[in-house]
Design a protein that fits this description.
By secondary structure, this protein is α+β, with helices and mostly antiparallel strands. A hairpin with a 5-residue loop joins strand 34 (673-677) and strand 35. Helix 4 (138-151) crosses helix 5 and helix 12 (417-442) packs across helix 13 (459-470). The longest helix has 31 residues, at 198-228. The chain is globular and about 80 Å long.
Amino acid sequence: MSARLGVDIGGTFTDVVLEIGEERHSTKVLTTYAAPEDAIIEGMGRVCAQAGIAPGEIGQIIHGTTLATNALIERRGARTALITTEGFRDVIEMRTESRFEQYDLNLVLPQPLLPRNRRYVLRERLDAEGGVLIPLDRAEVEALADELREAGYESVAVGLLHSYVNDAHERMVAEVLAEKLPGVLVSLSSQVSPQMREYERFNTTIANAYIQPLMKTYLDRLKGRLEAEGAGCPIFLMHSGGGIMSIESAAAFPVRLVESGPAGGAIFAADIAARHGLDKVLSFDMGGTTAKICLIKNQTPKTARVFEVARSYRFKKGSGMPISIPVIDMVEIGAGGGSLAHVDAMNQIRVGPESAGSEPGPACYGRGGERPAVTDADLVLGKLDPANFAGGSIPLYPDRSEAALRAHLGETLGMGAEEAAWGLAEVVDENMANAARVHAVENGEDLSDYTMIAFGGAAPLHAARLCEKLGIDRCLVPVGAGVGSAIGFLRAPFSFEANRSVFMRLSEFDGDRVRALFGEMEEEAKSFVRSCDAEAAIRADYKVYMRYAGQGWEIPVELTDAQAADPDGKTLLALFEAEYTKLFGRAVEAMEVEVTVWSVNAYTDPDASAPAAPVESGMDVARAGTRALFDPGVGHRVEAAVVERDSMAPGAHVEGPAVVTERETTVVLPLSRRIVALSDGSLDIRVKGETENG
């Protein structure tokens, strides 16, 4: 059977998974920041050696990366210019004029990606219907192109007013720039994000242009390195919406890669939910740098049209950089194994968002890190085996963790190393629990009905404690949890979502226009999917975003194939009122309803998830030893059984406290929980006394 490789570049580790039919091999390699492809080549070599195949036998590579996100956060993009309509030069600096921290008199807004001297204007104007009010003069565009050449720009973003309705002026600008500046990359807002709201659209287009040279160079370099190793197979990229796109599309629209790694994790969790017939799942993905939390209902991750990168105030909507693209909706916080701790001015322990990453890494790595990270606390509390971290490939030094905890937390707060580690762990766990609570409340959900699925190298260490804090009774830790996002890449469909902003009130509903609009978007989306897989059967989902007249936000309303083929205003109204009532308890009588955005998502059918067979609880498993584990639920160390995950056959159970070890992660089981191994190898963590049916 064809071999497929999934690669996830994280802030600390690069995860590599090789699948050949039902056979799977995986490894974790420290991320190489200067040349990320080095870690990929090393990891590919390891898994190919495990499987006994050559890289040339790999048939497909699917890749996700945080490079695009990091470039935006760290402002390491290309020298970029913006061309916009006269009078709109400062839109990205004025933002929406909202105050995300209303009572902070010293509020500092995030700086725009481009300073004012890199933003240029053209005298042109379209109305909201796309009609030309002021024609664009080609000679003016040519003169501006000469000015841009002199300034030495590598990339240009073009965002003109109302171009999402009529892109003629943007296309003229692109034609002139192609003639006059042949080596410069150009991003058009009508292609990158053809949606209403200038700030979000301009910002998204600038972000695409800002990272495009970096990502194109990286992808070209990666392709060359893989070919040199003999892996000349097709390479695909995971995009933020939870699907796969071609390497050529990724190079043209790199902004769609901004949440590619976390999206793979959500797809992985959705696949596990389908195998176990779970309709309400909280996906918990904790790696070396960040933790990601996502709600999955009916085995489908929740999606959104806009999300924020690099929030300057944690949990504060509006404090980040809005990116207007289809994305899996999740909350992401700086709480990973490498997240650094400090004591603030009020003598409180704070953790993250700053991370030690892989260079130098936490203090216990012995690579020069001096400040305590979450991994240091986990090591001191007995959650990790210093001789068997990452399968023994990375030795850990407990004495360095203790020294860092005492120096940076203990001396200030009058604590020993163990108490400081307990405080650090509780703070990071409460940060994640609070993020989950906020996310659930914003979506009108009660987490007590949910099952957690935990994956990522650090999540199984913290999942049970998080369940205790959130009142969640059940948690699954699937096979391959340590490299879950990379496995998710191999489960994802090829997909692309097309969006259009066409404002339409239901009282003026034009069925023929809507039918033509859906047809146009469907062809655009399907053509992207065909470029990845020309022979696959392609399906499409339809969605509209609606609101009451006067509201500043919309809610998504899903349509069936039949409703999209024969659109009707009365049907849309009934669907909208049902969704609005579900969210807010009641509809609003006698108010005009309008549609702002239309969406078509084309995708291939993923392989059906085989259901996990039921198991009967069997005998206790043999212990590999014991360990003194600090249990925060009781506030002291307890003697915990150490069990090797490979020794747990289906039905085997372990009573807490215990530690279940494997190569890529460790499952920590507190006194309040027990584990049963399921038929697919997943570990089912429940409150003691609860049955598998309870």
